[in-house]
Write a structure and sequence with these properties.
Blueprint (H helix, E strand, L loop, with lengths): L21 E3 L61 E7 L6 E2 L9 E3 L6 E7 L2 E7 L7 E6 L6 E10 L2 E9 L10 E7 L6 E7 L15 E2 L6 E6 L2 E5 L12 E6 L6 E4 L8 E7 L10 E7 L11 E3 L8 E5 L2 E6 L8 E7 L4 E11 L2 E10 L9 E7 L1
């Protein structure tokens, strides 16, 4: 991420530097408030600790703040509108319950495109969960998961499979040392897309030769073209994402999650390329590069689950929403006029460092929306300044 902008800010100051975001609501309106300066930690009341954020953020890997400039959603060629997509998301808010249904509890932080169905979270063991999306059972698709809260814990997707009419996403969560741990998390699932936005996903294996990743049902690209993956070194991969070709770097949004039972961090390793070939790295809990399977999703002009029929916000790795650095590895973003107590927010680190990031919370503050993000070093396990994406959907 170094070199994305020449404008930097000393922590605790403001700047006139500019960058970009991609936001869209049902009416196409965007209202952003730039908030500078450094503040002490803020903790809203418990009932506000979880609320929707229309937040999109990216920071330089050095931790210096990138300021904000509003930008229209990408309007390049998207192809025909698709209608056969399905998907869902959930905030798994109880780390130790044997099983629960957030929908039954009238949670505002769950969505299932099969309207008559619900979502169930089942604890299968310490740090082991099955997220059951009723009515979404299908071969293939893509899933992502990440820890929620202020700690250095993290989560991976162990697998996903159809169980009759139900889609089961298995999540594994670990502490910074790689030991299984019970933790709250956010998770999502998508199969194909809805609308005319660009959306792509794949499951990649660490093979040396250039290859089309996974079975056909585990990959999708809204352009109809075929992605490929090539290993270029231990834990280092090139990924051809057809839908990203021609999309400005500042308007591309990625989610990358390790897949398997092992405690591994995978992420986009560099600023997105408009040429369509992206870089991914995977690291172990000591920060060392490791070969590992991963899941990757790309969005431009669509939500984190590939939909345009619901409100959403996307991020750019080259630029981001206004971000306030509270302290090392702790950031806050404010978007004015977009506060709403519902939805899903996901955070993913980006850049060459060994940092990994996740959302601590998203809360409405009056009419505004505020999201807190935590980033940690895989090697030291300590908070670290990092680059990250933040995306939200309803």
């Amino acid at each position: 991420m170094t070199g994305d902008t020449t404008n930097t800010v000393t922590p605790g100051t403001t700047s006139g530097a500019s960058s970009s975001i991609q936001l869209r609501d049902n009416h196409g309106s965007i209202h952003v408030h730039v908030e500078g300066g450094r503040r002490g930690p803020r903790r809203p009341p418990d009932w506000l600790r979880k609320a929707t954020s229309v937040v999109v953020g990216t920071l330089l890997a050095t931790g210096l703040v990138v300021a904000l400039q509003v930008q229209r959603a990408w309007t390049g060629t998207t192809g025909p509108a698709l209608t056969d997509g399905r998907g869902g998301f959930v905030w798994a808010h109880d780390a130790t319950a044997p099983s629960y249904r957030p929908v039954a509890q009238k949670s505002m932080y769950v969505y299932n495109s099969a309207d008559a169905a619900d979502v169930e979270v089942v604890r299968e063991g310490e740090g082991e969960y099955a997220v059951r999306f009723g009515g979404l059972g299908v071969a293939g698709g893509v899933a992502h998961a990440s820890a929620y809260g202020p700690t250095s814990d993290f989560c991976v997707v162990a697998g996903l499979a159809e169980d009759g009419m139900t889609e089961v996403v298995r999540v594994r969560c670990f502490d910074a040392d790689g030991r299984p741990v019970d933790v709250r998390f956010v998770a999502s699932f998508a199969h194909r897309s809805v609308g005319d936005g660009r959306f792509s996903y794949l499951r990649a294996e660490p093979r040396n030769e250039r290859h089309q990743p996974g079975a056909p049902e585990t990959r999708f690209d809204s352009t109809g073209a075929q992605a490929w993956v090539q290993r270029r070194g231990t834990g280092q991969y090139l990924v051809w994402v057809p839908a990203s070709e021609g999309v400005p770097a500042g308007e591309q949004f990625y989610q990358v999650t390790a897949q398997g039972d092992a405690p591994v961090h995978c992420k986009l390793a560099a600023k997105p390329s408009p040429a369509g070939v992206q870089q991914v790295t995977c690291r172990g809990v000591g920060g060392e590069p490791v070969d590992h399977a991963f899941l990757l999703s790309f969005s431009a002009g669509s939500s984190v689950i590939g939909r345009t029929d619901r409100r959403y916000a996307n991020a750019s790795s080259a630029a981001g929403a206004d971000v306030m650095r509270v302290e090392t590895g702790y950031y806050r973003v404010r978007v004015r006029g977009l506060g709403s107590p519902s939805g899903h927010t996901a955070v993913h680190a980006v850049g060459e460092s060994d940092a990994y990031c996740h959302v601590e919370n998203w809360v409405p503050d009056g009419d505004d929306l505020v999201s807190d993000v935590r980033c940690f070093s895989a090697m030291s396990h300590l908070p670290t300044d990092a680059a990250f994406f933040v995306g939200a959907s309803w």
